[in-house]
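Internal QA ticket QA-208
Title: Verify multi-chain structure generation after dependency bump
Assignee: T.L.

Test input:
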Amino acid sequence: MNDLAIRNASITDAVLLCNAERETARTPGLLISRPSEFSSKSFEEKIDVLTREGLYVVAERSGLVVGHALLEPNRLESLAHVYSLTIVVHPNNLGQGVGQALMTVLLEWARARPGLLKIELRVRETNSHARRLYEKFGFVEEGRLEKRILLPDGTFIADITMAWFAPD
Ligand SMILES: CC(C)(COP(=O)(O)OP(=O)(O)OC[C@H]1O[C@@H](n2cnc3c(N)ncnc32)[C@H](O)[C@@H]1OP(=O)(O)O)[C@@H](O)C(=O)NCCC(=O)NCCS
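Actual output:
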């Protein structure tokens, strides 16, 4: 995995990242959005905003984008110390250390970010790989949102809220 590199996302990554999330969403129980609910325009907009106000990075191996992750600040003044985390390792690249590399960069950035005190995320209860990754990086469970996600087969699963707190 020594040719794995993490760089800032650029607007020109939007279509590829959108397609990767759409593909990931074909497996129920990973992401919240359904495949038809992604648009490259919204990826462009988020990359643009987070380039100025947060962090949006991609992982590249041998010049190919294999994952992405972001930290998004809350816009309300009373919540400005709270950021939201999203991470997606692209299909066919799972279990090869990409998620770990992305999380390492996100948390290094978070520790150095003035005013960032807390990172929040939501993860589907059945997504044990992601929950294990977050725990490994110091996230703790804060709550359980019952019946939050409706799967295509008509069943519901819970979302787990997790958080990371910046060291004092
Ligand atoms: C969750 C996700 C980000 C993990 O990334 P990854 O690149 O596959 O994970 P890594 O290879 O870097 O492994 C890092 C850690 O994740 C956990 N993990 C990853 N794959 C795992 C597996 N098959 N079984 C158990 N734990 C696993 C482990 O804690 C692992 O650390 P370890 O190897 O020291 O035990 C990735 O699976 C993913 O993007 N999934 C699809 C999208 C998604 O679910 N996003 C999160 C939505 S909340």
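Spot checks passed. Helices lie at 14-24, 40-53, 98-112, 128-136.
Status: verified.
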